[in-house]
Amino acid sequence: MNGRQAADGTGRRILARLAPGPANWRVVGVTILAVAAALGLSALLIAVTGGSPVASVQALFQGSMADPTAWSSTLLFTAPLLLVALGVCVSARSGFFNLGQEGQVLIGAMAATWVALRLAIPGPVLLVVTFLVAALAAGAWAGLSSLMYRFRGVNVVVSTMLMTFLAQQLVAYMVTTPWLLQESRIGTGTVSPQSNKVPANALLGSVGEYPNLQLNAGLLLALATAVAVAVVLTRTRWGFRLKMVGLNPVTAESAGVRVAALGGFALAVSGALAGLAGAVLLTSPVGTNRLQAGISNNIGWDGLLVALVARNRPLVAIPVAVLFGVLRSGGGFLAATGVPPFLVDVVKALLVLAFVAPPVVMNLISRRSTGRAGRIVSTPARVPEEAVA
Amino acid sequence: MSMSDNISTILASGIRLSLPLAFAACGEYLAERAGTLNISIEGMMLGAAFASIATASMTGSASVGLLAGAVVGLLIGVVHGNLSHRIEINTFVVGLVINALVLGLTSYLITISEFDTHQVAQVGIPVLRDIPIVGEALFVGRWPAFLILAIVPLTWWLVERSRWGLELRAVGENAQAADVTGIKVNKRRRQALMWCGVLAGLGGAYLAVGEVGSFNQNMTAGRGYLVIAAVIFGAWRLKRTLVGCALFGLADAMRLALPALGVTLNSQLLIVAPYLLALLTMLLFAAQHREPRSLGQPFERGTA
Q1: Which chain B residues have a beta carbon less than 8 Å from that of A10?
Q2: Average pLDDT for residues B199-204, to the nearest whole number?
Q3: Using the beta-carbon criterion (under 8 Å), do A10 and B92 form an inter-chain contact?
Q4: How near does any CA of chain B get to the CA of A155, in Å?
Q5: Average pLDDT in the B231-255 region?
């Protein structure tokens, strides 16, 4: 991030590495092998610990895809995961690595709760305002990291990560403090560390009428955002500048791009998208429609993994988010087979590795072989010069 | 209880809580000086905590468990080092994946297994332990606690006085320049991660077989990130990093002890204090460039 990568003759190689183009068949082949290995390892884990891999797969399928009800629950998880992942795509494109999605989701959900409970706005306008404020608040939260980088040179990865813990405690404080967002006491009843239920006109409804299948509006929002992000990143001047910054900040700077400002803004946008995910978590039937300290439920971390598997491509993130939604909703059904639901976390981590490693490895292999052939390596005389630069 | 008893209790619990951090912080400090911002330290600590209890339960010896913890930490360090400094996958991606994998795997395994409680022996230094207020805190503890007295000077010597440490620091400050002088950049970074793994493993294992005696799901609960905060708070200097660990441990001890003493202090504020301190330190010291210049940047031969 602070890195100054001097331009040199091997720019094409850097380009190939940072922005993987259409994957070649060897990478695809190795990826398929790696995914098979990841699934095989997971099955081995189940078998070794005395469970039945077949029964586990059946349970995962039952809980996530077997019937329209299962699909409804899968797609409810998909929407926030996709929104978070899209944010990652934006910031990763600029080379600003945002690690604070979990906190940004929480801040989005918190701001959304505040608006929905405190502002007396009639009708569906409230829903719109809720989402806007959620995006703005989470964007501003991530923007703090941008400012710290811009003015004090604070490492973005570290600051976004640390601010996650701030966000967690801030939300915990909000829902345990009566004059802030904690639920109101009815009579002499007890109160829990959560907010009141969001009013009905701030809830996301279902779209269309299908027997047993509920298509929540949150999913449509996420899909529309995915298309919008894809268009902005690949078809607009802003998207092109982002890519420039990500590929080579020094060149971008000399070409007249204000790197810190642009990257910082991309970081804020990525936070805003995570904030939208928080608002979806609050207002869709995926949860209790109340703000709770655990409302983010690792959606932020998982969304990051979705983007990693999709290699930061917005449209590819759609099926990956569905896959992660499947793992989430199916995980709940594992308990009946005696296999701990934590299995899906193992599967997720192994899958990410299986998708991330092959292109890097193949790139390395091809680089090593061309290096031996002496085609790309710089002549010895140039090395010190570059090192000084 | 008298006032001095209270202080003594909080002090003792503060030290117990800061020791796992201190072990791991020595490792994280060394890894960061070599240029790896190692976020898989959380996974190292958690994996080691699990391995120590599992091994102690199988062999019946808590000390063997401690050793197993260090070995698991080392293994994770080797895996991380090879993935990010040989295959050259982004180090933060590797860290995230390792943390997710270890959390999932340990949660999975602890749900289906039963382990006995095992704790290493407690030792106290005669005479000194009778010093009022600080005696109980400083001179009584589980025996691995006293390892810190050897590890801190050793880490300092390795980084500041040994040839190896000089190379590590060169790699962390300017990887390209170090490469030109013939230092194997990625090899040094892998070695630094291995050392980090051993110490983080000791820290996690100390938490499990030293203080608690058992393992529960996600038992480190973000202590690894706290260690990263401590290194930042220490502005990449060992002494201040350890001061940070002690402060964070004390804040934790106060959070646990104050309600019992009838003092109301916002617990969220105490939990968040370490992270706030780390952020503030970065804001204040960023301009002085205390951090290793190549921190978090991958090194690849031929691209400057």
Answers
A1: 302-303
A2: 96
A3: no
A4: 9
A5: 92
pLDDT of residue A337: 85
- Closest residue in chain B to residue A7, using alpha carbons only: B304
CATH entry 3.30.70 includes domain B3-288: no
Range B101-108 average pLDDT: 95
Select from A345, A351, A361, A385 the residue whose CB has the most chain B CBs within 10 Å, as the one to mutate to test that interface. Answer: A345
Residue that has been written with the tokens 């699909």 in this structure: A71
In this prediction, residue A171 carries a pLDDT of: 95
Q: What is the spatial distance between Cα B63 and Cα B209, in angstroms, rounded to a whole number? A: 8
∠ CA A229-A232-A238, nearest 5°, is: 130
Please report residues of A whose CB lies closer than 8 A to that of B298.
none
Query: At which residue do the structure tokens 């993130």 appear?
Result: A317
Mean pLDDT of A320-342: 90
Query: In this complex, do B295 and A155 lie within 8 Å of one another by their Cβ atoms?
Result: yes
CB-CB neighbors (< 8 A) of A308 in chain B:
93, 96-97
If contacts are CB pairs under 8 Å, which of residues 88-127 in chain B contact chain A?
88-90, 92-93, 96-98, 100-101, 103-105, 107-109, 111-112
Of residues B262 and A339, more confidence is placed in: A339
Q: Please determine, for residue A14, whether its predicted confidence score (pLDDT) is greater than 70.
A: no
> And the tokens for B134?
């600080």
Integer Cα distance of A4 and B304 in angstroms:
8
Nearest by CB: A99 against B92, B287, B295? B92
A292-302 as b/e: b if 16+ CB within 10 A: bbebbbbbbbb
What ipTM was reported for this prediction?
0.90
Domain ranges of chain B: 3-288
In tens, the pLDDT along A21-70 reads 445 788 888 899 999 999 999 999 999 988 889 999 999 999 899 888 89
Tokens standing for residue A317 = 């993130």
Q: Where are the domains of chain A?
A: 11-16+23-183+191-388
Over residues B74-91, the pLDDT tens digits come to 999 999 999 999 988 889
Contact B266 A386 (CB under 8 A): no
Nearest to A145 by CA among A158, A134, A130, A136: A158
Q: Which of B20, B23, B26, B21 is nearest to B160 (CA)?
A: B26
Nearest Cα to Cα of residue A343 among A21, A25, A29, A55: A55
State pTM to two decimals. Answer: 0.89
3-state secondary structure labels for all residues of B36-54: CCCCCHHHHHHHHHHHHHH
CATH architecture of A11-16+23-183+191-388: Orthogonal Bundle (1.10)
pLDDT value of position B33: 95
